[in-house]
Amino acid sequence: LAGLFLALAFAAGWRFAIATERSRRDRNKELVRRMHADVWREPDKEKAAKAMRELYSLNVVVHDWTGEHQLGLETLIANWEFERSAFRSLVEHAQAIVAEGDLVVDRFVSTGTQAHDLGPIPGHSPGVRNRGKTLRMAEMEMFRVVDRKLAEQWLVNDIWGAHEQLGLFDPDHWHESICSSANRGWTIPIADLGPL
Prior knowledge:
The chain is built from 5 helices and 6 strands; from the N terminus they run ααββαββββαα. It is α+β, with helices and mostly antiparallel strands.
């Protein structure tokens, strides 16, 4: 009889643990869904900033193609403003979201139309003249969730494809488009680059 009670208690505990983990994964995935909807698809700065304060930790860390950045919320809000000014009608469309433990991975597409020249990022990217082109960039990111907030992000995006779409180079005429004298030495002063 004691063995039966032990087995029943184990089964009940197992079910509770599974339900708790499923609930945590769903809650973490909802943070990322809200981040796309309430931050990166939201055109109003005040609404987006309010959502960022609800969704991100105060000392959010971002790892992207330019390195590791300990941004914090205010810099993240400034980045939102910069991206909105650089690309009109900027939106993100989540395509898949997967969670395990305190990690959430999502695949999404960002779209927008270039609105002004983009300054160079030394060691990473040359400046990109504004040609008013529309961008459709595939991206993937992983978040670490701490205390029900997005605390750390690892972002990978198709910068090569973005540069091609924005007219930085012509893949069919590589040498002429990259090495021509028209493209040599073109830069925007680093002060005009905007926040990281």
